[in-house]
Design goal:
With 529 residues, the chain is α/β, with parallel strands linked by helices. Helix content is 50%, strand content 10%.
Length: 529
Amino acid sequence: MMYRALYRKWRPQTFSDVVGQSHITVTLCNELKAGKLAHAYLFTGSRGTGKTSCAKILAKAVNCEHPVDGNPCNECEVCRGIDSGAILDVVEIDAASNNGVDNIRDLREEANYTPVRAKYRVYIIDEVHMLSVGAFNALLKTLEEPPEHVKFILATTEVHKLPATILSRCQRFDFKRIEPEDIAARINVVAEGEGFTVDEEAAMLIARVADGGMRDALSLLDQCAGQSDRVTAQLVSSVAGFTGRDHLFSLADCIRNSDCARALSIINELHNSSCDMERLCSQLIEHYRNLMIIRSVNDPSGLIVCTTSELKQMESQALSYSLEQIIYILGVLESTSGNLRRGLNRRVETEMAFVRLCTPNLDSSVDALLKRVAALENQVRSGVVAKPAAQNPAVSDEAQSTETVAPAAPEMLPDGELGCWPDIITELKNLNLPLTSVLYNSTAFVQGNHVVIYTDNPSLMSLLKVKNNAIDLRHAIFNITGIKYKIGVKSMEQTPDAPAPAPEEAPVQADPLAAFLTQAEGYGVKITN
């Protein structure tokens, strides 16, 4: 027998086989069991989500001689005849190639005849948005008042192109993108049925590439299975023709370290390996989107599709960026992606984007200038700006131009209320928005090498036990004061002016050696190196 593609071989035959669209299949089954059928249905959604499959199942179900709970039995003569094409009462029309007025007029005349073998004549019009204006007008009257023996099922990926007069005459069902976990589970079922194995990481990678479409996922699985009986993540990456995660992390590090030469070298390697630049740009956008999610929420695992090891690596890389930087980079990549789709030289456009990202002083946009000003302000606050050398007549001008003076170590602020606390909270917004909301209505005092936060919010201490939150707060304090402080938390009930015990340090920031030395000094024991 001729080989059949997996997406055709494993096409759902009943509503219960359809993956990820229970909100639609349950409703259709209930309508079929109750006998409350509409005369026209409209199935909308992105490609590969089950629109045509559900249309064919519905066409069989309304004509099945022995339906089972709203599903076709797939065993009676009518079901087998519809599947084989022997029964001509179910007609599937591709509106992309049959979109003229004459095509619809022929359909309208044919619809007047009663079905030959089935109970209903069912017309499935795929990509219905491709019909011409005249064809829509010709269909309108029949769609509004069809004969009793006729059912229409319209399917489209671009519902916004349909006239309102057509929409108002159909019962509409919106197909959503299938969740990656559901696609991965279906891939495992198909692989088991076909006699090959798929690694868990490979199944999730296929699901991520498919972008919610089951047909795309099975097509990619078919290609991988043609090369090996065991499908791995490396094989999927190779067959899909896109860069792996390692290159994405490397390119992101180049941007972070302003290493333009290394970035261009990586792009050259990818180009020579036939990597599509538009796909590379799309994946970088997804990568920085993941970094943005990590910087914005406490538990990003539910919003990012990746393995546990990848999530840890992304969390580590996200800490080296501020949220402001990530959003700026996303803006540049989005602009580059738009230029690539307009057919410009893809390699040159991609290289230009990385030169701009790795060399900020070349970018004169407002966002880039604001980013550079913010970086300079942080340097001024932290005291790392080089001071000019003192004029010395005995030293030549050339020597003076190369002489620098190391910045003086910043002194601790005097004990008492921290006047720049509102500025610190504002700075924290760019680093950790959820933690910022908890710090509203709080005050802070300097006590030695501690910044003690007085608050009535009992959740602050638990939040600071999370490593990333404590690090972000310390960074915000350092950016404003230029001094590295430890963090303590106190209740508002304790008066800041009264003599208070040593502030309670967040556990994640505790230093065991320092704690031991402090305790030893309390007993009068002095320990030296």
